[in-house]
Each structure stands twice: as C-alpha cells, then as structure tokens.
Amino acid sequence: MSQRRTDPAGPSSVLAGPLEATFDGGALRWIRWHGVEVVRSVHPTVRDRHWGTIEPDPVSFAIESDIERFIVSFESRHRAGEIDYRWTGRVTGDADGEVVYEIDGRVRRAFRSNRLGLCVLFPLSVIGRPVTVRGPSTVVRDTFPVAIAPDSPWTGITSMTWDAARGIEASLEFGEVVYEMEDHRNWTDASFKAYSPPLADGAAFTIPVAERRHRSVRLHLAGRPRSRVRRIGRAANVSLGRVVAPAPALGFGLPAGRFDAPLVDFARSLSPDHLRWRVDARRGIADGDVDSLAAILRDVDAGLELELITDQRSSGVAQVIDAIRRRRIPVARVLPFRANGLATPGDLVEDIAGALRRQGSRWPICFASRANFAELNRAGVPPPEADQVAFPIDPQVHAFDDASIVETLEAIPMAVRDARRIGSDRPVSVTPIGFFGARDLGRGSTLADSRNEARIRQPFGAAWALGVIEALVISGAAAGTFFDLSGPSGLALTDADGNTVVDGNRSPLQDLFRALRTRSGAALEIDHTPDVSAVAFLIDRSVTRLLVANRGDQATVVDLHLPDVPWRQPSVASDGWDTAAPVGIGRGATSVELSPFGLAVIDITPGRPSRLASGRR
C-alpha cells in the first residue's frame, strides 16, 4: 500500500478506482460507484433498552490505500449507563466494486439492548427501482416503495440485489444473520434501513458479559451509469420563477408559565402567524394562565395552536374550550391527544367536535401525531370531523451529525405529501419542528442537550430551518411551527429565574425569521442545485425577497439567476454571523459566496431602485 493514515479526526475519503466513500467515526458513508451513490451508510449501532443511540468513541484508526484498494482498520467503544461495548472493525474496498465491512464486538459488562449490530442505509434515489430480496427459503421481486411504508417492506432478508441507477447493479449479502427493512422516511430520515435483529425477535434483550459478536456485510457493484452524474464541488445555482403557491403560516411554541414583557416584545419582532400552547385538560386550567395567553396573542396579533391533552373520558375538555371561547381567542387549530397515546384517536376527535358544537364554537381539529410521522402513518383513516392532519419533525431521532440532519430535508416534502394523502387532501400542519434530540415529543419533556442549544444559536440552525421552510413550500404544507420562543431549546435564552433574555443573544435563526416577517401570502417557484436551500416570498406588490442558505460545511459560490431588474441585499447580520456579500450587484445573473451554512438575503424590486418593505405582511 502506498499511503497510510492513523489520524482519526474527522471524515476521511477512501478511493479505489471508480469506488469512493467516506469513513467517518466507524461508518462507511456515501458509497459511490462511478459517481452514483449506491449505499448511504454501513455502520454499527448500539441502542439501549429505551431505543437511545449510544454513539461510539474512537479508540484507534488506520487507513492503507493505493489506486486499486483501500483497507480501514479501527476500534471503537460505546459507553453510557449500563452499556460498555467495544468492537474492532475492518473495511476493504477495491476497484472491482467489492466492499466488505466486518466487526468483532465484545461485551464488557451485561446490559439490555434493543439493537446491537450493523445497519445499512439506502439513499432515496432507489425509490421505485427494482429489487430482489432473498431469505432462507424465499425470493421476492419488488420495487422500493414510493409511498412511505408504515411497516417493514421486507423481512427475513439474507441478501438482496437492486438497480442502483440505470446501468448499475448492486448486491448485498448479510452473512448468516437475518435482516429486515424499514422506511426511514417515517422519521423524516432520507433513507431506507436494513437492520438486525428483526423487531419480531423482541425488544430489550440481554447481552451477557464477555459475549463476542461477529457481523459482516458484503457489497458488490457492477456496471456504469447510462446518464451523466453531477459531480460535487461545482458552483451551485438558483433560478427565480413565477408565483406558484401560498406561503405556509409560520409560528413558534410558547414556554410553560406566564409570559414576561421581554418575551412578548421578542415574539412581536418575529410576527408569527400563530403560537403553540400546551394544556393538560386533566389538571384544569387557571384563569390567570388563560388571561396571559390571551394577552400575548393579542399583543403579537397571532392565532392559537392548541395542543390539548386529556384522558379516556376527555376530562377537562369542556372547561378549556369555554375558557378560550370566553376570551375570544382566535384558534388556528387544535391538536388533541390522550395522555397515554402518541396519535390522535378518532373517538377523541369526535369528542372535541361535540364539545365545540355544544358551546357554539368551530375550531379546526387535527388528526395528528406528537411523536413522528410514523405514528400518523400507522394511525388509520381520519374521522370525518377532522379538518386537518399534523405531525412533528425532529431530525435527530436516529443520527445527530450535521450531514444526517441536512439529509432530512430531502425526506420532509415526501412526508408532507403522504400526510395529505392520508388526510384525503386535508391541509397539513408540521408541528412542532426543532432539535429535540433525546426529548420525548410524546411525553412533553423539554430536555435538550448542549449540542441542540448550540445548533439553535449557530448558522447551522438557520440553514436547516430555511431548508425546512422550503420543504413546506414545495410540498404545499399549510403551516409549520418552529422551536419554542424561549428556554433551553428555544430561540431566546432564559436566566436562572426563567426570565427571557434577548439583549446580547441575537442569533442567525432569529434573523432568519425576522427576514421572513414581512412576507405576503405568496411563494415563488425556485429551481436550484441540491447544495443549497432557497425560498422566495412576495413582501408586497413591488418587492420579492429571496433567501438562500448553504447546506454544506464548506464555503460555496452560488450563481443567482435573477429577473433583469434592480436588486439589493438587506443587512441582517448579527455578531458572529455575516450575510454573504454578492460578488456583483446589479441586474440579471450574479453570484454570492456563502460561508459554511451561511445565509444570503436579497430583495428584488422591479422598475425602480430596490428598497426594504416595512410593516406587517
């Protein structure tokens, strides 16, 4: 071998002829053959008894390579709570298209786990493509699902062969272990996943001390693509088109408790269409809390998105409806849940509709999930009384790195479109949206680790949020509710006493939503390369605001194809974050250089010198 690396810091590219991939923290990612992504990732997974993912700590690492072959040797350790699992691994790849990934693991102390082994992720480019799935005594010829599959498309898998692209065939062997497949789009991950052991084998099985486990997968690639493959690294481009869709309503979550004056002022600066408030009807509702709610909604000029928790008897529902009705609070939608459930049952929708009728009110009622899209996808048909459907987004259900979170932007429009199909074309709201991490959406916890807080206050948070907004626009979502206004996982910080702290805590994410506050009700068609996210809204009859974000961790140049009219870029910079300066300012095509996860905001004003619009949308 001509090269050897032993530095484990950061991702490492590995090449062997037309085979290329990235080794990153024990995972072999983005496996490409002649430039076509065939497998998104092969990686070890350790899940605890509660389905928490225990990330690896690298112990040793080495890469040997030449033009025809690479070998990666590594060792990692997973430690958290009762879990202490260590394994050594070896990955080989060659120019003939053969990749072998194998690990040997050792349990250092007994623990209970829901999953322990290798996972293989397939990119969404395989959707609709032919696949042959083989088991110990079965052969199934099928295609990768177009609609998001609520349950496992295939089980009992020992090997599979599929068309990765026109002209490229891939085959995968799982050795002596039986796998099954799930559609990761149920959690807005941009992949299909093969994993072992199958769920039918049971959960939280005990791993005895000193047990050794060997796992391996073998991938073989053949053929050449019949169409041109776009290579990463070229300049991104954005082209602005015509008005195509109404802009989705945008809102935020309210923290628990009363709302202080700084929070009200902060909310007003963002001009939300609605604010989300959670109430547990089983515990009653205090007049002071509803008065405080009515005041902030009135001051901010926003509607109410109500998450309503109750029990099997719908206890307290009538009282909550009466308290909100008497204060004439405008309700955008209500999302009702049983305390012990993750999706809205049909009989609860009927109970809410009946209680509203008896009090002479008519609020839009959602058939919803408060965990993931998966729960909505498995909940059945909405009852006739349901007016909308809704589900939340947490991009950190299965992975926590920046690249995996960015990849969710590919799956979100598919989930919205399938939600509309489930709802028979009812409006779709996506709520809440945020970096919740270990937080259990279905239990209303507000835990967030330091990584989540950092992302909310860094350029990455704004870049990802703009990508979500674009996904809502192109999929025709009616509304999206982002983050809490304040708190550990909120847009603004709070001090030790729970008071809102806004001064000195300005962030790119805050500036993004301020740049959107003056939008009207229309969004424009945008054509762009996948390196960036982009949305454009009419501010008024004379101004179009274009927002472009870099989806990557490397600086990039974006070619902008704008109407042949004057335009300028408004300043929305904050400490530690600068909006990009256009290379050229004027008419027609120009370019913008974006820093990693950077954001550019450009106003386009036809017929006269451009200006910033003021006032409400």
Question: How would you portray this structure in words?
Answer:
The protein is built from 9 helices and 36 strands. With 617 residues, the chain is an alpha+beta fold. It has 3 domains: 3-223, Beta-galactosidase, Chain A, domain 5 (Distorted Sandwich); 248-518, Glycosidases (TIM Barrel), CATH 3.20.20.80; 523-604, Sandwich (Immunoglobulin-like). The strands form 5 sheets. A 10-stranded antiparallel beta sheet has the order 1-6-7-8-9-18-14-13-11-12, with no helix packed on it. Strands 20, 21, 22, 23, 24, 25, 26, 27, 28 and 29 form a 10-stranded mixed beta sheet that branches. The chain is globular, with a radius of gyration of 25 Å. Mean pLDDT is 86; it is low at 438-450, 570-586 and 607-617.
* Strand line-up of the largest beta sheet: 1-6-7-8-9-18-14-13-11-12
Tally of individual domains: 3
CATH top-level class of the largest domain: Alpha Beta
Helix and strand content put the structural class at alpha+beta
Number of strands: 36
Q: What would the average pLDDT be, to the nearest integer?
A: 86
Major sheet size, sense and barrel closure: 10 strands, antiparallel
Please report the distance between the alpha carbons of the first and last residues: 63 Å
Give me the oligomer status: single chain
CATH superfamily of the largest domain: Glycosidases
In the CATH hierarchy, the third-tier topology of the largest domain is known as TIM Barrel
Question: What's the architecture of the largest domain, going by CATH?
Answer: Alpha-Beta Barrel
Into which percentage range does the β-strand content fall? 35-45%
Q: What is the helix content? A: 10-25%
Global outline: globular
Radius of gyration: 25 Å
